[in-house]
Predict the 3D structure of the following.
Amino acid sequence: MAHRFFLRLLGEPELQSPDGERIRLRVRKHLALLAYFATHRGQVHRRDRLADFLWPEASPAEGRHSVAVALSAIRGKLGLRTFDCSRDTVRFLAPNLDVDLDRLARGDVLESELTPVLLIDAFLGDFEVARAPEFMLWRDQMRARWLPQIQNALVILMDRCRRTGDFSAIESHADRLQDLDEYSEQAVRAKMEARAFAGDRVAAIRIYEEWRGRLATDLDTAPSATIEGMALRLRSRGFEAPGSARVPTALTEQWRHQAFIGRGPQYRALYESWEQTKSGAGRHGLLLGESGVGKSTLAQRIITSAGLEGAISSRVQCYEVEREIPYAAVGTLVIGLLNQPGASGTPPEWLGELTRTVAAVRDRFPNLPPFSSADGETIRIRLTEAVLQLAQAVAEEHPVILVVDDVHIADDASVAVLHLLMRRTRGQRVMVLMTARREELDRSPHASRLLESQEHLGLQVLDIPPFTSDEMHELVTALGNADGRPVPLPLRRALVRAAAGIPMVAELLHDDWRRRGADCLALSLGAMTSDLPGSTTEEVYRRLFHRVFDSLSSETQSVLSLAAILGERLNDHPLYELVDLTIGQCLSGMIELARQR
Ligand SMILES: Nc1ncnc2c1ncn2[C@@H]1O[C@H](COP(=O)(O)OP(=O)(O)O)[C@@H](O)[C@H]1O
Ligand SMILES: [Mg+2]
């Protein structure tokens, strides 16, 4: 395979040497002829026809001469075995030349270990040859002939982006596809997704509306159900009165100015689990990684993706302070499902059963039968059944994803219910997606049992490693762009070094730099990292925390301390009186905290 030349015909044509260097043919018509030969490799061409094709204004003798010069120029680049020539004919062999069209014809678009991803563009791009109308006609014919394969390739590329969460690259493929076919639904869908993942719901809806209008007027057709559903979900704000929300919401605002970097393989694995769940074979996921590495972010991105495709999700963030409260985590998941379409289809006796542990169920459904008397293990089994009944009722209408963030600190009773739930939803449209810190998980006997029975549960365990240094640079660059203030290279290096692959630390250090400039922690850490024993990340966190904490007013410090204890109950403002804060002080403290975040 070594020493092969490469000819690109999709887009601006370019001949490349075996080392990937661009090889220039000095005469434009020589490159045009090479493109023609390579498109019809193996065919026998008459020399006089070739002359008419590219040198129509020349006399027969001049034309013949021009062809001969072109052949020798091409042979000069590709070697002696390029042509099989006779007096009147030419056959292009070039056994040492790879042409991108051949890969396109095979649908071999994505990169492999040996080949890079195929660059896709219109046949010969904007390449033109003056005073050669026949050539230009041929170019346009080829363009039309290869169009379906080109569109297909762009769809493959977009699908790969969708599966790996790369919603910045998807947009350029979509633009290209739309240039080739202004009515392409695939292109419009990808553009909507790209806008949604940039937190710009309104633009996504506008793209859809504009396209739908053109479809109706120009072609008298309507969008497919898939894309229409997506638009509906983007439009729904989730503010509708309880019970009236027939359309689940896809919230996207959280992604505004939030770059998403890397994580392709893990995203893909989760996306495939989601697809299986959607088709009725519930699969579950557990993301493992250290604090701040990006577990919750990845889970949330998948939720957004699935949400655009119609999934309903309910999420709970577990807190240490609630660890001793039985069923706290599962209770939150249940509350998240209560107002979803389909929930009211749960058999009343099972909703009644839920009220034993989740009182809020009765607020939503006032006339439920009382729950049966039971104890210990029976309660757990009945609760599991009730949660399952609720999830199934919702899943009748839309696939369901239950997210349990930081399951290593979930209460044991909830973990036991989740365990049973996963086992019983393997044939349903219900997915359980959890995140955890690995070392902590090992310390929690209940949660670590999940790992032991992963196969049995249909549970896919994915490690989320720290960012590579390249990914970290990309993140810091993105942080600077979002902020309109590029991060100078020396500082970027210092940030990348100090953050040790943890995006959360990079974000905090970046924020610290914005506030303090040259006095920032990242620059003073250089010396520290070499002489500190143990985990430097922890030390960075500790120092960052103290810097932020010290900058708060004493009232806000009190609010923060209390909030740390209250966890989820942060919104119970009266509890703040415990530390002698009025509701006003408490609110302004919260606002300051939110600003600092
Ligand atoms: N893939 C990513 N690309 C860009 N930023 C990320 C990525 N993953 C995480 N982050 C950022 O890092 C921070 C911590 O991520 P988070 O998901 O909360 O970590 P974890 O849940 O593992 O503790 C978040 O503020 C998030 O914006
Ligand atoms: Mg998290």
Q: What stands out?
A: The chain has four domains: 5-143, 165-235, 262-463, 477-596.
